[in-house]
Amino acid sequence: MDQSMSAAVPKPGRVPTSKRNSAFHGLRREETIAGYLFVLANFLGFLAFSALPIVAAFVLSATSWDLSTTVGPQFVGVQNFLQILQDDLAIKTLWNTFYYSFVAVPTGVFFAFCLALLLNRDIPGRLFFRFVYFVPYVTLTVAISIVWKWLYHPDLGFFNYLLSFVGIKGPNWLFSTAWAMPSVIILSNWRGIGYAMLIFLAGLQGIPEEYYEAATIDGATSWQKLRHITLPLLSPTSFFVIITSLIGAFQGFDQFYMLTSGGPAFSTTTLVLYIYNNGFGYFKMGYAAALAVLLFAIILLITLVQWWASKRWVYGNEA
Fold first, then answer.
1. Could you tell me if 215 and 78 are in contact, meaning their C-beta atoms sit under 8 angstroms apart?
2. Which of 182, 230, 287, 304 is deepest in the core (most CB within 10 A)?
3. By the 8 A CB rule, do 115 and 193 touch?
4. Backbone dihedral angles phi then psi of residue 18, each to the nearest 5 degrees
5. Digit-coded pLDDT (tens) for 167-207
């Protein structure tokens, strides 16, 4: 047998390269199909419960649709948005939303960071305290609000009972225009502080210990370590917590609906609650959709501003 014929015959025990390639591509094709099937359910859920409602809200925002009548949606263009500018209650609810968000989020993030610093130390019972602070976050807001509504009761509430021991007459927490919003902020921070604390803990534990050891050798104080090591290296985590907390605050609804229903005198009516009242209370679906689009635009703008500002203070994201 000559050399050319022997080269054409495959060696025993070896699969030809072409067959190996076809088997490899077949396996990759099966894995690709399986991967698409796994994400299909999530994609369909996003399409049905997120994408399509968003598109519907934009379409309905340009219509006048009163669900209490048999008349269908009527196209009105930008009339709903012009009505928002003339609606004093819409402006008030927008102010309430900003007030709640930009007071609750900074205070909540600050206390969550302090708790994370404390519970990141080797102290007795730290796992128990981590659990205690995180439990409210996984508890239903409705159930928490019902309990806190009794705690805030001006005559029978536990808070005013404690204040009476030091000679202080407790305020009408949920029935006062001055105290209603701070009361909701206290509840919201108490419930959400555990989640932010957990994220901060993960960030703190991701900082290499060698940095602190080197700083100790150089004679750095605890404050200098916090300022020059912890805060810069924790800035990506802080950015995540701040941006997600602000988005959640602008969408706050449950605690407002359960504690005050927007009162007294609309002092705790937020934009989301006002959207709900217009859509399902007054049946003005077109106007409610316009308010929802406005809320979407505000959240998007604030998020973009934060992304732009992050280039100045977030470690690893400098321009």
1. no
2. 287
3. yes
4. -60, -40
5. 999 899 999 999 999 999 999 999 999 999 999 999 999 99
